[in-house]
Amino acid sequence: MDVAENLRHVEERIVRACADAGRDPGEVRLLPVSKTQPIDPILRVSELGYRRFGENRMQDLQAKTTRLRELGHPEIEFCVIGHLQTNKARIVAELVTEFQALDSVHLARELDRRCEATGRRLDVLVQVNSSGEASKSGIVPDDVLALAAELRHCPWLRVRGLMTIAVNSPQPGPVLACFDRVVEVQRRLRDAAFDGLNWDDLSMGMTNDLELAISRGATCVRVGRAIFGERATRGAQ
Prior knowledge:
The structure is a single chain. The chain is of the alpha/beta class. The chain is 43% helix and 16% strand. The chain has helices spanning 3-21, 39-47, 58-70, 89-95, 105-118, 144-151, 172-192, 210-215, 225-228; strands at residues 29-32, 52-55, 77-80, 98-102, 122-128, 157-164, 201-203, 220-223. Helix 4 (89-95) packs across helix 5 (105-118). The mean pLDDT is 95.
């Protein structure tokens, strides 16, 4: 597996998708998802210009952060993209630059409290369950406005936008419907004009559906398998 070649192919896909959508590729950020991957491929991708990686397991994230510091790479940052238990909020507040899975008032308050204690502000995206699947995390679209109202009282959280995981379907219609629901939520949030909250970021699209997501306005695509290959059986090594 050539991680550099894989990364180049993903970047080319993003450029083509942006051209098809009449968008500037500079509007779309690629977040390499390194969960379950060892340190070496992360370092290889970082050498190619990427500094932020997606993780979802706190134990792996802690181990990788420690190892990267030992190796002299404190510049590498992590973004948590998976469901977070409230009792793990301290780890995120201490070690993470970005959190893309905010889905409850309770978690927002705990993250805000932990961030204040550490003196670190945290970029957050609200995760929307756009597919309606019980197996997926995220807040239902109709409840996002209520959560946003509470986020005005969490000054240590910098609200940047929305994240979703679309339904896994071979047909584009159901996938696009998920992305369209999130775009509609974004519109409603902007119309509500909550002071101090920014909804510009849309983290939508992964290996199988990044082109569809870009066609609907995604500003961040989260790609793991197409870059790193199939998931490793263990994380930080």
